[in-house]
Amino acid sequence: MSSLTLLKNAYVYAPKDLGIKDILFGGSQILALEDKIDLSFQGLKVIDLAGSVVLPGLIDGHVHVIGGGGEDGLSSKVPPIKEVNITNAGVTTLVGVLGTDGYTRTVEELVSKTKAINEYGLSAYCLTGSYQVPTVTLTGDVGKDIIFINEVLGVKIAISDHRCSLPTVAELTRLATICRMAGLIGKKCGILHLHVGRAQSGIEDLFKIVKDTPLPITTFYPTHMSGHLEQSKEWLKLGGHIDLTCHTDTVEAVNALMGINDTELTLSTDSNGSFPKWNDKNEIIGMGAGSISTLYKTLKELIDQGFPPSFVYSLATSNPAKALKLTSKGQLKPGFDADLVVLKEGQIDKVFAKGVLLKDRDYVKKGMYDDIV
User: Fold this and answer.
1) Model pTM?
2) Most buried of 11, 28, 63, 218, CB within 10 angstroms?
3) What angle do CA 325, 131, 113 make, to 5 degrees?
């Protein structure tokens, strides 16, 4: 029998508020979640979590795992993410993406890094494509990437941005139909994930596609939508997904969108992507980078501002799992993966990924070369 772990007396957000519960998991799955579980035998690991909060491992749907950027020359490319930083952030599942640079960064590198994160012990997926259309791929065919590469869930491109290819409605429609069909065949979400720039047009082309074609609105997953709140409201009303990037305007954006269609609203970090600062001529005047730590920091800020905890935690657990069709992720319930975050006094204290303890207070599992480079 594989080792079993019993968490006792934890206050559980599943993300629904369940109150104080005991959680039993073994192997990689949650086996039981009850008011009280009384077990005692050799090999059972019991952890008393009285005074602590347990929630599902966080899901970050937009991470530049091999680094993003490059808009200010090759020296401005952001470094790849380290697994230790993912774990310390309480993220147990992520989706890797390419960004502006689909020339010196490749889908091959992206898939390779995604596999490495899985080997470390976390759950990682990725999207083929980058800002450009036609999209960069590994197999030479978007649909084949989705169907035949286990880690690839869909495609990422950019719209309404001076750095993108400015795809036409026809090009977007054709790409979305490929995602849709490949998702059905590959039994995946087949999502078309769209970086939405600050151009006033926003997602107006997506509204046209949804109005004029039979494509389901859930085929599309626009992100960076804090700058397009009115469009976000209408998109949510139609049943579409909206993703907000964790930044200084996130609390205001969540407040504006809460209550419209809460299960379709998600947060992600754009971690290890570049945050260029542009003047009114679209010239770079500064450069920053996203951090995966902002996901939990944003959740905590929302709770500190008085938003309901169950709603807040769903933004980075059950909601992205639903959008990405990750059917064993995002909730604490029997049969789901044992991905758990333990909070103590509002800070991340422990992280379990597929039943394995990767972080325990100051201890965190390191990557192979963390002590060398």
Assistant:
1) 0.97
2) 63
3) 60
Q: How far lies 338's CA from each of 34, 106, 132, 323, 359, in Å?
A: 15, 32, 37, 20, 14
Q: How far is CA 41 from the centre of its chain?
A: 38
Sequence-distant (6+) residues with CB within 8 A of 303 are 309, 312
Cα angle: 150, vertex 142, 328; to 5 degrees: 30
Helix (H, G, I), strand (E, B) or coil at 311: helix
CA distance 52 to 58: 17
- Residue 147, pLDDT score: 99
Count the residues in the chain: 373
Whether residues 319 and 336 fall in one domain:
no
Q: In which domain, by residue range, is 359 found?
A: 4-55+331-364
Least confident of 20-24, 40-44, 167-171, 324-328: 40-44
Indicate whether 372 belongs to any domain: no
Q: Are 226 and 249 in contact (CB under 8 A)?
A: yes
Q: What share of the chain is helix, strand, coil (3-state, %, to 5)?
A: 30, 30, 40
Measured CA to CA in angstroms, residue 239 lies from 25, 59, 220, 232, 233 at distances of 35, 21, 11, 11, 10
Give me the active site residues, please.
270
Q: Which amino acid is at 10?
A: A
